[in-house]
Hints:
The complex is a heterotrimer. Chain B is mainly alpha-helical.
Amino acid sequence: MPKNNSRTVLALAEFQTSGDALHAAEKVRDAGYKRWDVHTPFPVHGMDDAMGLGQSHLGWIVFIMAATGCLGGFSMIMFMNGVNYPLIVGGKPAGAFLSMIPILFECTILLAGFGAVFGMLALNKLPQHHHPVFYSNRFEKCSDDHFYISIEADDPMFDPEKTADFLKSLTPSHLEIVEETVAPAPADKGGHHG
Amino acid sequence: MSATDTTVHTPDSYRLPTTGPWANAWKIALGIGVLGVALAALGWSMDSRRFAFSWLFAFMGVLTVGLGGIFFVFIQHLTASGWSVSVRRLGEFMLTGLPIMAILFLPVVPYTAELFEWDAHASHGDASHGDDNHGDGSHGDSGHGEGSAEAVNHGATHAVDKGVEQDHHTDASAPFHELHEELLAHKKPYLNKPFFLGRAAFYFLSWIALTLFFFVFSTRQDYSRDKSITALFQKASPAAAALFGITLTFAAFDWMMSMEPTWYSTIYGVYVFAGGAITSHAVVTLLALGLKKQGALGNVVHTEHFHDLGKMTFAFVVFWAYIAFSQLMLQWYASIPEEVAYYHQRWNVPGWKHVSLFLVLGHFLIPFLFMMSRNIKRRLSLLGVGSAWMLIMHMVDIYWFIMPNYDRSRFSPHWMDVACLLAVGGLYMTVVFAVMRRHSLVAVGDPRLSRAIHHVSG
Amino acid sequence: MSAHAPVEEIGERPLLPPGTTFHDITEDVSRITENPAPRGWWILFMLALGLAGLLGAALTYLLTVGVGSWGNNSPVAWAWDITNFVWWIGIGHAGTLISAILFLFRQKWRTSINRFAEAMTIFAVMCAGIFPGIHTGRPWFDYYMFPLPNQMEMWPNFKSPLMWDIFAVSTYFTVSALFWFTGLIPDFATLRDRAKNPIRKWVYGFLALGWRGSNRHWRNYERAYLILAAISTPLVLSVHSIVSFDFATSVLPGWHTTIFPPYFVAGAVFSGFAMVLTLLLITRSVFGMHNLVTMKHLELMNKFMLATGTLVGYAYAMEFFIAWYSGNPYEWHVFRYNRLAGPWEGDNAGPLWWAYWAMISCNVLVPQLFWSKRMRTSIPVMFVASILINIGMWFERFVIIATSLHRDFLPSSWGYFSPTMIDIALYLGTFGLFFTLFLLFIRWIPMIAIAEVKGVLPQADPHYAPPPGSSSGGTDSVAPQGGAEVSHA
């Protein structure tokens, strides 16, 4: 139980294999937890379903960015070579479309690439260097060969004892209750970092 | 080791249903083919020159589908793909129609002088009116075609330009072969009828050999379950790919590119290949959808496979656009007269511009946007629509390759185009469907079948 | 699950030695960045640094004196500069090919080499970028090439393929770098978690962006990776296609041919694979990575080179055939007399015939060795072949550029090209830059994609059942400890 100047922020269950973590995740999902996560060294096939996550929405961001790139490229060329300073080269009309295609394509891909990477980071709320899971020393093995399920204390269903018992029933190889040191006063400071 | 492998797949597990539409599919196809042949014969008696063009169009349209089938099969072996084992047999069935294509090529043979200007040149010699000099049985008929009588009077070269300025011709009224006498003489060592026929024989022999190799061994594996057959396929597929690449390229040169004998493009073989590659994936998708609907494929082919087939179709649609754009852009940009004549013919001649635009939209832009979505590739009815659309567009593409040469002055569709397509397509399908009745619809002997069944697409 | 087990009889083998654990991979890859560098690394690094110095000296001289210090002349206005540009950018294609196209085709073997090849891509594109920059003659005016308002109130000519190049190469560099960094994020987290030294922990922690292996993150991450692969595939095709447009949009015989775009792409992939192989064989033996880069990987790469080399051969054949078929006498002259005809044809021979034959021997004939399994599994053979292919691909670009230019339409203006010391020093110098960056990369950054290799191990599959006799793991086995101990942090 929380000591005087610390409070529970996370319950962290450790698993040895991807299969164990997957089956445990299905049970956490079925138990109705909302603010929880699975941490794995590599993406585990089928984990999205086991966690009850839908499809990623990244595709839309990329699509919008790509369309912007294409139209932006078109406007740029049309304005510069067609309107502002009409340029006829090689007998091709100022606004010839065929010779625009390579640049339109590159602009489309460039912005789509930005959309994919920065969109992914934005959806994941990264960079975020501070997170309660990092309080656990064992968690360093997450990027090596261990699998973790974390349930955050601010999940509406979280109860320090019940949640710990529930996680124990999933037969983890280790269970850890992660606590956070709170500044002595005022007592409530520094609660949420997520 | 795993409970998932308890299903035993025997050669009889996946058979064409004996009831329902598939049972009589070959008869329906035969009916279509016979009807087509009858109509084509009627057309031939009315206008043999048009018949020759329509037949060549239908022949090339269907042939490239079958050749795409060869590609579909060997690329799976070349990449040692496990996922595609579920559907590979359907690609193999597409090959079985190729031998009959050798017979369906025969109607082209007497009409090379009408179809190919280099041959018109050869058979006319120095005579200005060559109708009487035709060899190979095309004599007489060409003179009776009413619609094209004028063109025929110019030695089947139809350089009659009705209101179209052909600035690449120095004298638009002279017959094509006279204008280009020097060029055609230069090409004669390659473009002459004996060599042309010899090459055709070589192509067909190669394709029949590839068909026998891939189909016979694969169906034999259904019973023997001999894993060494898979190893053999993997070992032989690079050589098969090389043979396929060479024969397809030169067949495309011979049967389509040489219709405009002054025009040339090094990418042409790749261009024709790209169309065949799209269509083979589309046809495999359609076959799988049709068979699955009747329950003939059990749980062997499922959404994941359709998703992957859709992705491949999509990828080749993009590839086709890339190749088509490369050829168009480079020839447009450089504006060398011999080269731009090709696009001039397909853009500045009334009617063809719309066909060209239709190809840009229908063969690339619309399917590109349609097939991009993951949801559409996984919704089988929509995927079926997309695949059928690509099959139709492939025929438009082949039409666009061939038909501008029929009448250089206008876009001139003809009912015989459809009749010949029914004839060639119907007879091709008759063979394919008849063979399907006698073999397992799934390559059950492949050691990777259970992996394919458990395949999950991304 | 047995469905996914390799079938031995059809030549399938496990990618990595059986029994490789997740931890083995973490250890084997991270160790290289943690241990002191082996002596071999230092020797190579000093050599590379020396060559990079040569690049600096040559560039300084060039900027002082001007491009007249090159062997370029009229009619050979493009020579080593553009040859080197195309060669380097071609080498830069294997990285994206391996990371993108092989990813889309689910070729799992790519995971051991993709990071490596992506790094190579980025450094090769940097080397490539130098040449168009300096060949303008007055590189301080290079900003004219960008669509910026300038004092002449003129915009760039977007119909020029050279402009397309600017967009293509800079987009390629940017997207490749983003792709590379995206792949690195989880691996930086691994290095962060292993770091003992606080500075090291801080640096890798900063780069890892706070990655915590969250499955909610992996979901978007995997989608981003897939999308990047999907857009990089046409991108990689477009870049070398656009480079080929530099030549093919002209009317110069030997340059203007429609197969150039796919032919250049095939050649680029071919040379890129050869370069990956050369570097991989050296690195593998210096750092002892035989368990991560196995003979199976090497053999597959050799097969790829056979395939792309043959495609390049197909393009050579098409060019040659159409040069004759077109009936264009200038086109035919370039192929028949500027390239093919050697001294055995007496006066018909062009002065650069040897370049053409070097290209054919290295690019078409050498890869044919790999039809034989013995050849494609022999390290010395593949090492020599990969170097020969690199040489051959350099000659391919030189042949395209120089043999087409030096004897074109008018015999009165025919000429010849010989390189100067500055040409040679610049070319060698780019190797210095490339290897300096590359050696720094293998020293400080995980050169094998740790998370991705783990993902292709058999036990990564949650339905994996360990082979009989193995004690841990399994879908319904109880965790070894029997029950959980609870601890507080």
